[in-house]
Amino acid sequence: MSSRGKSASVTGICPPFVLLYDMMNTSDNIAAPATGIGGAISILRISGPDALAIGNRVWHGKTPLSAANARKMLLGRAGSDSALAVYMKAPASYTGDDVVELHCHGGAAAADALLRLLLSSGCRMAEPGEFTFRAFVNGKMDLVQAEAVADVIGAGSEQALNVAERQLAGSLSHRLDAVWEKLNELRAECESHLDFPEEELAWDPDVAAKINAVAAELQALLETRELGATLRDGVSLVLAGRPNAGKSSLLNRLVGYDRAIVTAIPGTTRDTVEVSTVLRGLPVRLTDTAGLRRSNDPIEREGVERSRRSIAAARITFWLLDASAEQLDEELAEMERSAPPGRIAVWNKIDLVPERELPELPGPVVKLSAKTGAGLDALLDAFAAAAVHDPHPAEPEVAVNARHAALLREALAQLPEAVRNVESGDFEIASAQLREARRLVGAITGRSVEPDILDHIFSRFCIGK
Ligand code: GDP
């Protein structure tokens, strides 16, 4: 047992890294809480060759858990408390090992007591992600699907969840497997030129074209990266502008409920307010900032300082301008002084001055009434265009992550050269390049993968997953 394994507790905290020594041993029995603290029930999971025996050691019902009642939920007792138990027989379980799950009363104390019982009955504490790691080792899922499990858990919008679920079901894996097979065939074709150079074999005349087709598929997968990053990480969006421009009103409209306090007194949002929301299907971390203006009030000054930091860190800024203000140049001067280059200028309160001639501004500009909602669609178009260069982003079938993209890029880099070598008859180098591209594509799904990569992937998981 690793030192971290010993100290891991029932709280479900994800440590920042994981040692794989314990995980590489997939023949012992592991246990961990599968639910976080604070819920009505806690689920403890056991996986391993002796999961059934250990389950029956700690849980007692009318009949013991067995193959005859596999996948049936049974009521009994575990320790001093009532508990439900279910047995999933290998290989028909999440991990591919024998699995027992025990459902006990929620709360850290009940789950901790049961966990201790399991640890003293033949289990060791599972490392973060170890159940999923076993599923990978047992061939229940490939590496892309294992990563999709983490994506499902972390999904911040319905679109992100849909893509993650599709990838968990194998949508990306199937495309990558098809590319791998194609590269394998093309490599074999090139190698046969080396093995039988003199023979009059029926050579495939389209090898170069087929390599180009593979390159196009890799490129298409790579192009899902931008939307993939946005769906996984969310977009940071800041509302900025002078006090009273309508930032809090817009935040409430975007989020759909009264999250920020809207008042007519300038300077009431003294701190930044952060909320998560979904705009045009994209998960968004939305920050309402204190209005930017010069102030002698030390609390307001600190708020203004925080606003500047939020603006600097955000990917997109809506810069609100009060279209009904007497002095429009004051509104504009603050924007020129403080707005980041890609800001979206928003003339707000347009309902008060529908006929007013407003100064021309460079870059994206939207006219809005945060009060009535007029112009909101145009604002969301401008937002999505800035976030993913598309005002109406369609939900992608697949969306690669940073690790996939790096390997795809490397694989892709092999192919133009391979085409040139095929065309000039240099099949030895072409086959080496195709083999390397195949290896790189295989590393994405985990056909060939280094332990430190596995470490990196599974360390993102929580204990119990
Ligand atoms: P903030 O200081 O920038 O957060 O501004 P608030 O959202 O608190 O709004 C300041 C005042 O302007 C409030 O009285 C709002 O009701 C009003 N307001 C905000 N947006 C609009 C708008 O589009 N039209 C009108 N007529 N009033 C607005």
What does this structure look like?
- With 465 residues, the chain is an alpha/beta fold.
- Helices cover 45% and strands 15% of the residues.
- The protein has helices at residues 3-7, 21-24, 51-58, 108-119, 130-137, 143-154, 158-168, 171-195, 207-222, 225-233, 247-255, 298-313, 328-338, 376-388, 402-423, 427-445, 451-458; strands at residues 30-33, 41-47, 59-61, 74-78, 81-88, 99-105, 124-125, 235-241, 273-279, 282-288, 316-322, 344-348, 365-367.
- The strands form two sheets. It has a seven-stranded mixed beta sheet. Strands 9-10-8-11-12-13 form a six-stranded mixed beta sheet, with helices on both faces.
- Helix 8 (171-195) runs antiparallel to helix 16 (427-445), helix 9 packs antiparallel against helix 15 (402-423) and helix 15 (402-423) packs antiparallel against helix 16.
- The longest helix is centred in the middle third of the chain and has 25 residues, at 171-195.
- Guanosine-5'-diphosphate is lined by residues 243-249, 262-264, 269, 291, 348-349, 351-352, 369-371.
Terminal CA distance? 18 Å
Number of helices: 17
Assign the structural class, choosing from mainly alpha, mainly beta, alpha/beta, alpha+beta, or little secondary structure: alpha/beta
Question: Segments where pLDDT lies below 50 for 5+ residues?
Answer: 1-19
> What is the helix content?
40-55%
